[in-house]
Amino acid sequence: MNGYRELSQQLGDLMALEEVLGLLQWDQEIVMPAGAIESRGRQVATLSVLQQERWCAPRLGELLGLLQSDETLDDVENANVREALREHNKAAKLPSDLVRRWGERTVAGHEIWVQARKAKDFSQFAPVLQELIDLSRQKAAILAPDQPAYDVLIDDFEPGMTMARLDKVFEPLKAFLIPLLAQVRQRQSQPGLPDIGFLTHPVPATQQREVGEKLVRTMGFDFERGRLDTSVHPFCGGAGPSDVRITTRYNENAWCQSLTAMIHETGHALYEQGRNLALANQPVSRARSMGVHESQSLLWEKQVGQSADFWRPRYAALQQDYTFLQQVPFDDFVYGVNYVDLNNFIRVEADELTYPLHVILRYELERDLISGALAVADLPAAWNQKMQHYLGITPPDDALGCLQDVHWSAGLFGYFPCYTLGALYAAQLFQTAVARTPGLLGDVQAGNLQPLLAWLRANIHQLGSQYLTDELITRATGRPLDPHAFIAYAGRKYRSLLRL
Amino acid sequence: MNGYRELSQQLGDLMALEEVLGLLQWDQEIVMPAGAIESRGRQVATLSVLQQERWCAPRLGELLGLLQSDETLDDVENANVREALREHNKAAKLPSDLVRRWGERTVAGHEIWVQARKAKDFSQFAPVLQELIDLSRQKAAILAPDQPAYDVLIDDFEPGMTMARLDKVFEPLKAFLIPLLAQVRQRQSQPGLPDIGFLTHPVPATQQREVGEKLVRTMGFDFERGRLDTSVHPFCGGAGPSDVRITTRYNENAWCQSLTAMIHETGHALYEQGRNLALANQPVSRARSMGVHESQSLLWEKQVGQSADFWRPRYAALQQDYTFLQQVPFDDFVYGVNYVDLNNFIRVEADELTYPLHVILRYELERDLISGALAVADLPAAWNQKMQHYLGITPPDDALGCLQDVHWSAGLFGYFPCYTLGALYAAQLFQTAVARTPGLLGDVQAGNLQPLLAWLRANIHQLGSQYLTDELITRATGRPLDPHAFIAYAGRKYRSLLRL
């Protein structure tokens, strides 16, 4: 058999296993009976071991070795080999006892974290956090002994990203956001801003679902190849690009949350549904990175879904559905959906301006934990100090502070920056789409989102992992990652909203 | 590592794969978006190939060979080895090109059958049926060249069963049913039987679901380890004994159908939920056979769920839910739920008396197709002739005749007999449970089903595949398969119902 064909078959099996694991996870969250948790654990473990075995199979390595220098391959095929090689190398290099220990300690870490957070007691979590840091350093040292450990870890989520580049984009962002938030705080203490009481007007879940589903359809979500369900934490999952499943949750006293979550998850879903189906069972068709994935959800949620342009053609219909909005002027509505809450400690509840600082704080702390510059015991104090410095507030306890997120308990060091990279890419992409496509903004203003989706399909979704992130973003926007698109957008938007 | 422990681990992986395949199938029927059908096909194919590879892995064969003569194993362990060996041998003996060809032709066969049935044209289906018969003969010749092909095929569904034994139980059954049905026909042409109009009184699906769910709970279905959903064809599936998922369908003009289906599928589900959880990931805990599985669904559906004893303590409550039954005397109700429809051509809609003849007819035809005694071209005529002989009716076309069932299009030769074996086992088991357990029938009559479930748990469910079918049935009932329990029961019941 032709070597590339043999490789494609093996990778097809691996992608199918990944899809099945995605389905098992969706099932567990949405429909699985509670008593099946133990057997589900065994099923997931079996498939994960099979997946790991297949990724590091010697024959796969052999094929990848041969094909790496095969000049008859085209660009897409070369990219496919490159992406497969990345995963093969990781799988093949990591010794199985480290992988097993990692699995055990992250499961234990999660349990201990749940208890520690409940008890608001960081000292309970500290020892397992230390273990996970040590294991992460070991992992990084095996994968790339000549690189800083944190750079190796971030590669799992944002291939090619480094601390040096993160610092270069996060510093100007901090320099922009910290003083802007001080201005916001001052402005909010003065009279003359709109009343946001309408945000807590009660709306039954069934009505929220109806209104949200209409919007999800308008955005282009294909219900023939996806579903919308309810879960405790909204997510986008499923079993590959033909089976994309999004979820939301309904808080009857905060109708805007379900809507925001649906728009956000639909952003992720459009990326998945927009993958090149002809290559759907090959790594090259997969989403480029966590950061690029987040750019798609945030582009729709923030750049589009919280803009006046998006809502103006829809507001009358929304007022028909939610009659209490008939008393709310359009500008007040837009102000409300973009409300900046300066007294919030929790990342997942943060608004567009404070969110990046929550992320940068975590990035700086985890970077220093991995390098050893910050001792685990000193984490709570360092957290609180940065919160005060960046956001002007100090958490009353560690549950609202350094114990709030699940990530570290799962050993996910290097994941946090992707959230804000997503926000930055989103601003770059939306500005470019508008600037380069005559009529696109007019279409959005007229309620037609299809030209925007088409642009994203062509410039991001269909390309999958064909290009490295820098090349993808440069091809799409004319320049690599650059925080100034976000800074310009956010400055303009919030100065106007807050009448600064 | 200890050989038996190594075996258990490998078998645990295989059982987990089987469970995941079960989940994929459930998902496909119940929640999967339509557009995912192609990618789902790839996922199932990948897992099936992995499963096949693992079943015929040389190391598994080696372990099984060693353990087969290991005298330190206990009875359960020996049975586990025996069950695993059966599957390993089949997987290892069948050449992969035959397996692939089988997969291709059964998929094609299904498509062609759908078309042929639609067109009521057997000639469209005949060529692929011939192919599937040829492939089945090849398969049987490879697996056991010294045995009749049909005996080898039936082993997939009812291990240990043979044509010789089937003939021995089916002949007395025919000799009992054919004249009894003639009596029924005559009786039904006379006045004095109850009106069954209440069976078609409209009931909304939501109410049917409520009423059915109460009954399912009463029977002992554990919703912590299972679900009840809606599907086109009712089934019991899921992902192992901790995740048992049953379905039903709701016909608003035939409320009894959903109830019957729920009781039937709950019978299957109780078997699965009653497996020995300590061995849940080993072959020895699996249901003994298709026939024994069907015995559990039919015991609950027919022996129990269509008996006056079962309904008497429940009838007042049912009349509260379905007020139109307040006009229906209890005896008329029982007559109605057991109504014998002598003008029905369709097996899946058949009642307790005609059903076995539908099955015996198919058994005799497929047996003769496999042996060559019946040519494919002669199947429609042979079918119609037997229908006339056994049931006194002749189908107007092949869609209502030999094209009605999906089984042959999927190459499932040897499956049909299990339905009636189930009915026979069910009668034996219920009679023994009642005879050997003082108070059990009184409890059923008082509305308490737990002692019956406990008996089934101890005598069937918990034992899984530890004993071969004959030993299982003999241990439970004091004698091996014997049609006379069913004959006695059915004769008594229907003579009384029909006032013969």
Q: Quote the average pLDDT of chain A.
A: 96
**What does the largest sheet of chain A look like?**
3 strands, mixed
Under CATH, the topology of the largest domain in chain A can be stated as Neurolysin, domain 3
Oligomer: homodimer
Approximate helicity band of chain A: 55-70%
SSE pattern of chain A, N- to C-terminal: HHHHHHHHHEEEHHHHHHHHHHHH
Strand content of chain A: under 5%
> Rg of chain A from C-alpha positions?
23 Å
Distance between the termini of chain A: 67 Å
What is the top-level CATH class of the largest domain in chain A?
Answer: Mainly Alpha
Shape of chain A from CA axes?
globular
Strand arrangement, major sheet of chain A: 1-3-2
Low-confidence spans of chain A: pLDDT under 50, at least 5 residues? none
Number of domains of chain A: 2
Output the number of helix runs of chain A: 21
Total DSSP E strands of chain A: 3
Could you list some keywords that capture this structure?
homodimer; 500 residues; mainly alpha; Neurolysin, domain 3; 2 domains; three-stranded mixed β-sheet; 3 strands; globular
How would you briefly describe this protein structure?
2 copies of one chain form a homodimer. Chain A is mostly helical. Chain A has helices at 3-30, 37-55, 58-68, 75-93, 96-119, 122-143, 149-154, 163-188, 205-219, 255-273, 290-304, 308-311, 315-321, 330-337, 355-371, 379-391, 417-436, 440-445, 450-459, 469-477, 484-497, and strands spanning 226-230, 236-238, 244-248.
